[in-house]
Amino acid sequence: MKSKVFLISLLAAGTVATVSAQEKVLNLYSARHYQTDEALYANFTKQTGIKINRIEAKEDELLERIRNEGANSPADIFLTVDAARLAKADELGLFAPVKSKLLEERIPANLRSPDWFAFSTRARVIVANKAAVKAEDVQNYEDLANPKLKGKVCSRSGSHPYNISLMSALIAHIGEAKAEEWARGVVANFARTPKGGDTDQIKSVAAGECGVAVSNTYYLARLLRSEKPEDKRLMEQVTVIWPNQKSFGAHINISGGGMLKTAPHKESAVKFLEYLAGDDAQRYFADGNNEWPAVASVVVKNPALDAMGKFKADNLPVATLAKNAAAAQRIYDRAGWK
Ligand code: FE
């Protein structure tokens, strides 16, 4: 009798699992948390009838969670920022390759890998204090290592993915030896031990505590769009410089995502990735964080981004950033860029 009950409950459990796998559902693990994303997801459900269950947390927490859940993870899609983080997920073997004609047509080849796709881009630019540093002295990333800037350079940690990806790009363009020499030069110019995020660097540059720093564009755009008088004053103190316009262009990073190998709803997952490459979704996805759409034909009207002007972007494949990430971290460690 006992074994019969056991068998019945097993069958029942099996039935539930089958039903849930066919349900029109998508389990999304996202490190994005912008208010505009609500409309983005609601629109997907309206178009496809697929309901989105969303879990939002910090990038590294989500990665850890997916790893811990293993084969039983309910996650279908992992969305995050930075090529280095996507590379980490890829290295851990978490993604499944996605073959989609639509994605291949819409997302430029340098902004995708077989396993993940970029949906928006951001640039890493130089921010200088107008009074303390001459703009012509900091036109290139390489200039940050010039002894002229001794005691003037501020930075966030060398272990942060944004700086890892910047170093990965430098390795690709100038080689490991020169990239390490550069890192040592920048460290020798530090005004203080690395601390804080990009916005903290901008604030310190505006306050004159630092002469120059680098920042992602969306932090600057956020300050430029701010109505707060203190933010307006802050932005009046700084110059934003598009780096390396006469060589390889400003370093570009991405936000993006991929389908997980263990995804229980693979069909929904591919539909969602394709949806994110659509015109409306691209606009929402990028503009929600003051970024640029990955799909070239999509135009965003963003006064802050427009105010920063046109620029030459580095078109290095983001997969290369991912590939060089480990070497980049080793260089920062050897150079003492904490
Ligand atoms: Fe950020």
Query: What count of helical segments does DSSP give?
Result: 14
Strand count, sense and barrel status of the largest sheet are: 8 strands, mixed
Give the helix proportion (percent range).
40-55%
Low-confidence stretches: 1-21
CATH superfamily of the largest domain: Periplasmic binding protein-like II
Series of secondary-structure elements, N-terminal to C-terminal: HEHEHEHHEHHHEHHEEHHEHH
According to CATH, the fold-level topology of the largest domain is: D-Maltodextrin-Binding Protein, domain 2
CATH structural architecture of the largest domain: 3-Layer(aba) Sandwich
- Measure the end-to-end span: 65 Å
Overall description:
With 338 residues, this protein is α+β, with helices and mostly antiparallel strands. Helix 4 (83-91) packs across helix 14. It is globular, with a radius of gyration of 22 Å. Helix content is 46%, strand content 15%. The protein folds into 2 domains: 26-121 and 253-299, Periplasmic binding protein-like II (D-Maltodextrin-Binding Protein, domain 2); 123-251 and 311-335, 3-Layer(aba) Sandwich (D-Maltodextrin-Binding Protein, domain 2). The longest helix has 21 residues, at 2-22. Strands 1, 2, 3, 4, 5, 6, 7 and 8 form an 8-stranded mixed β-sheet that branches. Bound molecules: fe (iii) ion.
